[in-house]
Write the C-alpha cells for this entry.
Amino acid sequence: MNAPRTVHCQKYDEDLQGLPFKPFPDEFGQLIYDKVSMKAWKEWLQVSPRYINTYRIDLQSEEGKEFLRKQMRIFFGFEEGENVETAWVPPSQET
C-alpha cells in the first residue's frame, strides 16, 4: 500500500496530504494535483455548492465552468481577488 502523497499546499502554505487524483484532465487539474492539499480540496467541496446555487450555474456550459474555475483559482490562492458573495448564511447567523 502506498503512503499518501504530500504537497506544499498553496492555500495553507504548509506541507499536507495531497489529492490521490487529478480533478480535471487539463493543466488546471495538474496544478491542483501538484499544489492543493486534500484538506483544501475538501473545504472547496463544501463551499462550491454555494456558488452553484446562488448563481444558478449550469456546469454543462462553458460560462458556468469558467465561472466556477475562476472562483476555485481565487479560493486556492492561484489568482488575486475576492471570491464573489453567496446567499449562504451560517446557521448561527440565521434570524
Remarks:
- The chain has one domain: 6-82.
- Strands lie at 6-8, 15-17.
- The mean pLDDT is 90.
- The first helix runs from residue 27 to 35.
